[in-house]
Write a structure and sequence with these properties.
single chain; alpha/beta; Aspartate Aminotransferase, domain 2; 2 domains; seven-stranded mixed sheet; five-stranded mixed sheet; 13 helices; binds pyridoxal-5'-phosphate; Cystathionine beta-lyase
């Protein structure tokens, strides 16, 4: 697109010269980093181009909110990595989740969510139920083909998360997708845990893959962004309408930060995986810990499905302390860690820890011991283990 930006003025006042330049940088510049295009206003070549420009199929630029070369490039790269055809960016992972719900659900519809769903997605379900006349119902994440019994004539969407948040159960995606598709229901997968690297959602049958790019794609603990990837054009178009109507723009600088993280994502992911398995195996050997909720460990519900469907694991897992330890004691363990930050979100270089009160976020939580979640960063795993050992000594 060659845009005639600057009509040559015969005479310009100083103020107009300050606003308009006659300079155009020479073309032919090439470098690996993508260009960062900042724009609210996008300039059209002429009125005809303005009238015919289509934002929806990304053949033209119409407004900063609807895409720039920077955001189109990130979307194309993410679709390519996931094995999808289309991608839309959102200002956070949660915004991407909300975009799916607003695109696909209307009053009278029903949506199914796993009981271990990312908790803000559960909160969104509560809002849909209370204020929008949509029913959000929760299913056992290990339900598999049994989900068929929950599908109603008004069910439009099934959310899946592999593994689910905090308690880490691994769902049987092919079984859920088969039951859903037999009834014309779409399946969305929150694929954040393995960044689309160790679990190939489209190959298992899901219709929409969602990512919190905030995590491994960025890797820097410095940006919030989400993505929705699809193969089906009609599904993408519905999401794109919601994207436009809700004004889901992302900043060019943030899109750049995510693209800066992408080339090292797989190497970082593999390092997180190896370190997390080493730390988890050490925790498994400790008498203070009864259960290691890491999908690569037999303790984890759905471990056999992880072995069947995944090619690796993320750096995020949980453990359950022996029930003889009170929350006061396990809080002392968490506060005694020196290399683990206490904070939400994950996927960056720094290890993190977070204790959870499971009865507040699950319907029928049976575990009696305290659950603590770890994000294993890129530190030397032996140093993390030594830190955990000294913190476990403070339990008593
Ligand atoms: C972090 C996360 C999200 C939300 O991402 P944000 O960018 O923080 O909104 C969604 N799903 C899962 C599984 C997550 O871990």
């Amino acid at each position: 697109m060659t845009t005639k930006l600057l009509p040559k003025l015969l005479a310009k006042s100083l103020q107009t010269t300050i606003v308009h330049t006659d300079y155009t940088a020479p073309g032919g510049f090439a470098a690996y980093p993508p260009a960062i295009h900042h724009a609210s206003t996008v300039l059209f070549e002429n009125v005809a181009a303005m009238r015919s420009g289509q934002w929806k199929d990304k053949t033209a630029y119409t407004y900063g909110l609807h895409g720039t070369p920077t955001t189109f490039t990130l979307e194309a790269r993410l679709a390519e990595i996931e094995g999808g055809s289309h991608c839309l960016l959102a200002p956070s992972g949660l915004a991407a989740i909300a975009m799916v719900d607003f695109a696909l659900l209307k009053t009278g519809d029903d949506v199914l969510l796993p009981d271990n769903v990312y908790n803000p997605n559960r909160e969104l379900g509560r809002w849909l139920t209370n204020d929008f006349g949509i029913t959000a119902r929760y299913y056992d994440p290990l339900i598999g083909a049994g989900i068929a019994d929950l599908i109603q004539p008004n069910t439009r969407l099934i959310w899946t998360e592999a593994p689910g948040s905090v308690s880490m159960e691994v769902p049987d995606l092919p079984a859920i997708c088969a039951a859903a598709h037999a009834r014309g229901v779409l399946v969305a997968l929150d694929n954040t845990w393995s960044a689309g690297l160790a679990l190939r959602g489209f190959e298992l049958g899901v219709d929409i893959v969602m990512h919190a790019l905030t995590k491994y794609q960025s890797g820097g603990s410095d940006v919030l962004m989400g993505a929705l990837i699809t193969r089906d054009r009609a599904v993408h178009d519905r999401l794109a309408m919601a994207h436009m109507r809700l004004g889901m723009g992302v900043s060019a600088d943030d899109a750049y930060l995510v693209m800066r993280g992408l080339p090292t994502m797989k190497l970082r992911f593999e390092a997180h995986d190896a370190a997390a398995r080493k730390v988890a195996a050490w925790l498994k050997s400790r008498p203070e810990i009864t259960t290691v909720l890491h999908p690569a460990f037999e303790d984890c519900p759905g471990h056999a499905i992880w072995r069947r469907d995944f090619t690796g694991a993320g750096g995020l897992f949980s453990v359950i302390f022996d029930e003889r330890y009170t929350e006061e004691q396990t809080d002392r363990f968490v506060d005694s860690l020196t290399l683990f930050g206490l904070g939400y979100s994950w996927g960056g270089a720094n290890s993190l820890v977070m204790p959870y009160r499971m009865t507040a976020i699950r319907r029928n939580w049976q575990g009696r011991g305290v659950l603590v979640r770890f994000n294993i960063g890129l530190e030397e795993p032996d140093d993390l283990i030594a830190d955990m050992a000294q913190a476990l000594d403070r339990l008593n």
